[in-house]
Amino acid sequence: MKDITKIYENTIGLSFVWNDTRTFLTQLIFRDTGFHLTVDEIEIFIEKIYDSKMQTQCSTCEYGDNCRSILLQTPSNKVSLAVSKIELGQIEDLLKGTLFQLKLNDYLYEVCKN
Q: Alpha-carbon distance 103 to 2, whole Å?
């Protein structure tokens, strides 16, 4: 874990940056999937979550909120994920927590620079 700086973590995944690179990408990992995203792409991903929340599930589904019937678009036009309502909420928390921490870190860096 010394090769990374963890940004945020919750029950579905975590976000971090690699210490030995000069990239502005944040690594987000949840389930078996990893994404390398910019801050702008994280914001786009959050918007995609809002869109996915508008999808309705089958009223007779035996899996309820655990049914992976929600199609979540990602910032990549070529990648979509099938998620449950519960996972969607956890992914939203992961993205929002990551974005908050990144913006807070940038703000503190700017304040301390002066």
A: 23
Q: Which of 72, 86, 81 is nearest to 12 (CA)?
A: 86
Q: Taking CA 27 as the corner, what is the angle to CA 24 and CA 31, rounded to the nearest 5 degrees?
A: 165
Averaged pLDDT, 58-75: 87
Identify the helix (H) or strand (E) that includes residue 55.
none
Q: What is the mean pLDDT of residues 103-108?
A: 90
- At 58, the amino acid letter reads C
What CA–CA distance (Å, rounded) separates 27 from 111?
Answer: 25
Where residue 23 falls among pLDDT bands split at 50, 70, 90? confident
Cα(61)–Cα(54) distance, integer angstroms: 17
User: Residue 71 is encoded by which pair of tokens?
Assistant: 């199609």
Contacts of 1 (CB under 8 A, 6+ apart): none
Type of residue numbered 94: L
